[in-house]
Amino acid sequence: MDIVEHMRDIGRRARVAARVLARSDTATKNAALAAIAAQVRASAGDILAANALDLESARSSGADAAFIDRLTLDARGLEEMAAGVEQVAALPDPIGQITDWNDRPSGIRVGRMRVPLGVIGIIYESRPDVTADASALCLKSGNAAILRGGSEAARSNKAIADCVQRGLAVAGLPADAVQLVGTTDRAAVGELLRMNEFVDIIIPRGGKSLIERIMAESRIPMIKHLDGVCHVFIDRDADLDKAIRIADNAKTQRFGTCNTMETLLVDAPIAARVLPPLAAIYRDKGVELRGDEKARAVIPQMAPASEVDWATEYLAPILAVRVVEGVDQAIEHIARYGSAHTDAIVTENRARADRFLREVDSSSVMVNASTRFADGFEYGLGAEVGISTDKLHARGPVGLEGLTSQKFVVIGDGQVRT
Amino acid sequence: MDIVEHMRDIGRRARVAARVLARSDTATKNAALAAIAAQVRASAGDILAANALDLESARSSGADAAFIDRLTLDARGLEEMAAGVEQVAALPDPIGQITDWNDRPSGIRVGRMRVPLGVIGIIYESRPDVTADASALCLKSGNAAILRGGSEAARSNKAIADCVQRGLAVAGLPADAVQLVGTTDRAAVGELLRMNEFVDIIIPRGGKSLIERIMAESRIPMIKHLDGVCHVFIDRDADLDKAIRIADNAKTQRFGTCNTMETLLVDAPIAARVLPPLAAIYRDKGVELRGDEKARAVIPQMAPASEVDWATEYLAPILAVRVVEGVDQAIEHIARYGSAHTDAIVTENRARADRFLREVDSSSVMVNASTRFADGFEYGLGAEVGISTDKLHARGPVGLEGLTSQKFVVIGDGQVRT
Known about the structure:
Number of helices of chain A: 15
Oligomer: homodimer
Distance between the termini of chain A: 55 Å
């Protein structure tokens, strides 16, 4: 069978399974999730053996350490995977909830019912844990999933997907509810991105180059995360202790995450007070500073920042620092160079905090808190599908609700329109 | 200036204006809307003169009666246009509202603030009233608008857009908040659909061929309406009076609207009781019936329906009729042939009504009410941007809220992540 027909067959089968899932009750979906978790635990040996083969291939083809790290599974990781699936089972089922009832003058009652999106295509790279994680989220939200993992993790993904299949069977749900694309042919991704009659949404999970390639090709809407050029602005009316604590944490708690601060903006009147203690902390933690002229006037050891630095997501122990003249210039800087992900102001001035909250057009805007809080679990969403840097449908951390839609339900008693 | 650079210049200026609009307060936006309405009334003579020239060109180029009808403005239409703009002013301002406050164990408070989408591109055909209507909706929701109307309505659109410009000036809002693309060059639309760095969403308003062309070309998300193949299913436990009233109204109240019933499904046990009185009503109202064999066994005068009929949006006094064996077959038929727009069941059986509501995957699902109710005003949304047949972002009738997004706001007191 050629690859186009193979993918379309997967799509058609997903569409049929999606209708079964959409009407499955919460108990059935939770039973499948519990069974999947049990299968992951029971098959740990098989999964680790498959992973060892993937790792061997990756090492022999010269993959770097970070790549090997993302690909590696261990017993503890598998237990976390199983527990993660159980956590999704424990979340409230969004499907079927009706809200916003409204009695209209015509006599009809109008409400909104939460429903699955239908078929979700997930395209990911070397992390095999996404196989379990994405399966669980799609299943709980009543969606069928088509999973396309990286070829380097093919054996690990297959072993985990087998657990998912056995779990679905235990609960009497269709095997096609979660399909792993087996072929490593690159054309499969192209076809997946084109078959909009079978796939309702694409969620790419991976690095920027993957996302950009998918954006260029896809004819299907996406929930995606692009850049995280996040800012902390320390206002002239900041509490200095809070400012230092937040600017430290936002940069150094983890360097490689999308909600890590990449540029620090400091209000001119307090630069001489706040920059020296922060520079000392960053120096101790091995963070390289790159500043504009005014920042370098306070901390001469700083390297000069170029125009490129302001727009760079380092994902590394490097921080750009700029001294600005007040909140207006900070907001301007963020609008020009930021990526609309997460930006914070540190201030005790309520009016300026409100302006920052309203005028900074980012998926998360914060007052006196670390940008590192931009996360589905920290926000109380229970699970995280990803963080969306788009504006439509879902913005910021996306929970189960992001995999659903709402339809209108109308209850009448014979009403007609006049 | 070439057309690409011309469009990109419009995009850049819209982006700048969008930031001003996003922080404009409700009073300013409403003042602009009031001034626009006043300008439309004061300039009625100019608008009608411009419209007369458009009509003259359209007639001499052989436009048909329906086209001329859509293009025609008159004094009463202009008063409705002005009143429509005032109605938008009277709606609550969605922007800046914060909901879903959630106190987290970490000490942060998380909420969601409603914000504009940014820049909205509206592409429409021959109806010049869209110029005022779309301007008002975008303005109220804090979005900048780029309007591209049909070339045949160019002079009418320009006269109305001039009123919008004068209204914006009265309120001190930037002229670039609403830009009408002046050139009739077709390439302008292509560029508008490609410049996703300047345009956040495209709303096409027009016939199916316009929408399909835009779908094929656009790199920007859309709120769009495609097909309305709507069904009424008369269940065996229907109240026959309600069934007849609803099936009559859903088809005959207006033939050309997207929420008009195109296929009637009748449960076999009551076909012989419900079809004869309905056939008499339809005959009196000039509706041609096309039925399957079982329907024709009851009403032999019916023409036979072909496979094509089940999937056709007639927008005309034609109705497809099928006799089905119960709610399952009705749901199957709708899943296979419907367009996921609006579908209704008539029944007194609660369990079957619930199944229909849950399992029919359409933007509006109804019990004992006419499909003609699927409308933003009937649902109490206050205004209607359009009806979306998509699942993402907005589904079904779209009000002002569909032109907005939500960002997360986080309020801390110096919290950092551990």
